[in-house]
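User: structure tokens for this one?
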Amino acid sequence: MSSAVTRPAGPDDLWSVDEHLEDILSTVRPLEPIELQLLDAQGCVLVEDVTVPVSLPPFDNSSMDGYAVRVADVAGAGEEFPAVLEVVGDVAAGAADPVRVGPGQAARIMTGAPLPPGAETVVPVEWTDGGIGEGPVSGMRARSLAPEGAEGQVHVYRPAEARAHVRAKGSDVRAGDRALTAGTILGPPQIALLAAIGRGTVRVRPRPRVVVLSTGSELVQPGEQLATGQIYDSNSFALTAAARDAGAIAYRVGAVADDAETLRSTIEDQLIRADLLVTTGGVSVGAYDVVKEALSYVGDEDVAGSGVEFRKLAMQPGKPQGFGSIGPEHTPLLALPGNPVSSYVSFELFVRPAIRALMGLPEIHRPRARAALEAGEALRSPKGRRQFLRGAYADGKVAPVGGSGSHLIAALAQADALIVVPEDVESVEPGSEVEVLLLG
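Assistant:
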């Protein structure tokens, strides 16, 4: 995979946000379809139409617990003069050989049970004495507690029209109908339908496998003791969670120390389970920016670093970025900056769309809206940079949360939107209309 957007590569050259994203999306292709078990296909995109092989429901069945009867036998039934019918047996859900209902007869029937031969309608048990002979009942006693309920007589106190309380065969979908169309995203209702029509597997574009690596010798895993100069690794947790939220199967790799060989080795080890790799940290211009050192060279195709380009973007936060491909399968890699807010904003702008493009989803971007800015003073933005500020959005209004520093992760946790300030705007007055990227 090579860069599709050709631009000058001078040291001071700035890419726009749109150019960087275009380069990513022009080179990331949807994953090849595979056949998956239903639960494994949740959240995936269907790649073929699904036709109904069997009608739903597959037979006429009762929507109530009650008695299956003939219409003529309960016509005119009332409280004073109930219809008295002979109970010939039980019809339970799953019954393979139900009893036949003849003139003057009734069969106890359970919800979901097939309408027995000869029966034309269902009388709810609440319209009967339940075979007890003591007036209307509120429910049907279990057969094990009242074996006589399936025998003897039942008094019916109300008439019923033909096919009352009967679910007709094919009333949901009929055999030959199109159940789902290609391009459908499979959620719980769609999976329920597939199971109901007997599909055990389905052909979809799979969820991409995303490997997240953070870099930095100063990083310590949460739960461990901090020493002087150390901080907890939050980026790998944030980005792994974000990848899962985007629909991916995400794997988090513990922080890699600032050593180029160690990083190259770790990345090569992870390629076997990655459709996309995401690194965070080590992409700026410092002496210990290990990702840039490890990956920014062109050499042997078998070496993990070949094909990754590092850029400066006209944005804040998130100016340093890297994108390219690595390994024999040309696995895409996105290298994000290490500051927590920078890495998360970069993920939302670049990695999330890439994940959803790999899935073949029709909508790959977060929704956007226009909102009135609620702020005590004007927002300042550097000239020539597209700024993304954390915000809280509600009812068409957005308020900044925290400052603009790229290390302020506590403010990020309170935000549900990003306020977008264009490159040609240096000041935004309170009450002005702004564009917001909705994160929730």
